[in-house]
Amino acid sequence: MSADLFEFLCRMGDNALVLGHRVSEWCGVAPVIEEDIALANTALDLIGQATLWLNYAAEVEGKGRSADDLAMGRDVWDFRNLLLVEQPNGDFGQTIMRQFLFDAWHVDCLGALAQSNDRRIAEIAGKAVKEATYHLERSSDTVIGLGDGTDESHRRMQAALDLLWPYAGEAFAPDAVDAALLEAGIAPDPARLQATTFATYDRVLGAATLIRPDTEFAHRGGKTGARHSEHLGHLLTTMQWLQRAYPGATW
Amino acid sequence: MKPFDTKQIWAWLADVPDPEIPVISVVDLGVIRDVSQHDDGVTIGVSPTYSGCPATQVISRSIIEVLRSRGVANVDIATRLSPPWTTDWISKDGLAKLAAYGIAPPSKAGGPKACPQCGGDDLERVSQFGSTPCKAQWRCRSCLEPFDYFKCI
């Protein structure tokens, strides 16, 4: 069980860490200052959540590694984040669409985890879901504003949805780790979250006058670590550079 | 043996300012959850406002510093995630101090009740986020001034 639990905690932590890093790449270069601040704040919440999950992962693993060691010392094949969150920022619309597809799932997942039998998981999820709910409110509003906006913003949002949709389904595909945690009452069945999350997708995308691609095809391999996209390695070279060059450096 | 009066420790904590909003103390902010004493020293239970808020670490350091200056040598900070911090825990005093400082206090309605500058109620949201994780940006259409709103969570 502890191996499965470690795996699961890395999945939660890596989603927050990788998306947090991606979103932080906008800091200082967003289209307007309000969005710059909003993106940086979202990144900060996610990196805070990553710290909570990875601290627990490190304790469960019991090999003397810290949350920092996990974040800065693992290579691509040891990361367990969804493929969605490692996808590049693209334009602002693509960043917001990625955020929305993630937030809608994240809120449902954290809401279920807040009822976990594992007290520590329930506590972290109970804290994080408040932040995720706020993120979803903003990403939904922005998807609607841009989707139902000008011809140009609509075209870009539809293009972002068409590009990212095949990465949305991975979150709902269960595997042996999910089955073990479901059995223990620790985590929900990912497939059971799909109906609620898809209802959010349809409500918001409908209001945004965007059309959800009519396919269930989903790229997989992020949450198992079997096959990350080429983008994660590039992200890690930036994120982990300092600890790779100066291992253990503190300040 | 309890070498310190717990009430006294709470009073000392009321002198620890929030690093981002120095007009309110960490006690006003509602992040101090419990104070307990044991043979090795004192444990202060602290709830983070937001998971990634950098002020959380500064708050912990300030608590240790202030209590040490009062002669409490061994201070332990214990993070209390559950129940999660809510703006409901900001004291009445704290709410009044926020407003006087120019930050509209949190409101269940989901937005500020009045402009902290002119008291006007014709308000618009500029951004859901602001200069710190706990705030959003609003603007008053009467006096045209932007202001911070303390997000209600």
In the CATH hierarchy, what is the class of chain A? Mainly Alpha
Q: What is the general shape of chain A?
A: globular
- Main beta-sheet annotation of chain B: 4 strands, mixed
Mean pLDDT of chain B: 93
Strand content of chain A: under 5%
Q: State the distance separating the first and last CA atoms of chain B.
A: 39 Å
By CATH reckoning, the class of the largest domain in chain B would read Alpha Beta
Q: In oligomeric terms, what are we looking at?
A: heterodimer
- What is the number of domains of chain B? 2
Please report the total strand number of chain B as a whole number. Answer: 7
Strand content of chain B: 15-25%
The CATH superfamily of the largest domain in chain B turns out to be Fe-S cluster assembly (FSCA)
The topology string of helices and strands of chain A comes to: HHHHHHHHHHH
Shape category of chain B: elongated
Q: How many domains of chain A, as an integer?
A: 1
Q: Any idea what the CATH architecture of the largest domain in chain B is?
A: 2-Layer Sandwich
What can you see in these coordinates?
The complex is a heterodimer of chains A (251) and B (153). Chain A is mostly helical. Chain A has one domain (2-245): Up-down Bundle (Ferritin). Chain A has helices spanning 2-24, 33-61, 67-73, 83-86, 92-113, 119-147, 151-164, 176-183, 190-207, 230-239, 241-245. In chain A, helix 5 crosses helix 7 (151-164). The longest helix of chain A has 29 residues, at 33-61. Chain B is an alpha/beta fold. Chain B has two domains: 6-87, Fe-S cluster assembly (FSCA) (GMP Synthetase, Chain A, domain 3), CATH 3.30.300; 102-150, no CATH class. Helix content of chain B is 24%, strand content 24%. Chain B has helices at 6-13, 26-29, 55-69, 92-101, and strands at 32-38, 41-46, 75-79, 103-104, 123-127, 135-140, 146-150. In chain B, strands 4-7-6-5 form a four-stranded mixed sheet. In chain B, a hairpin with a 5-residue loop joins strand 6 and strand 7. The longest helix of chain B has 15 residues, at 55-69. The relative contact order of chain B is 0.15. Chain A binds chain B through residues 20, 34-35, 37-38, 41-42, 44-49, 51-52, 119, 122-124, 126-128, 130-131, 134, 137-138, 141, and chain B through 48, 50-54, 81-85, 126-131, 133, 137, 151, 153.
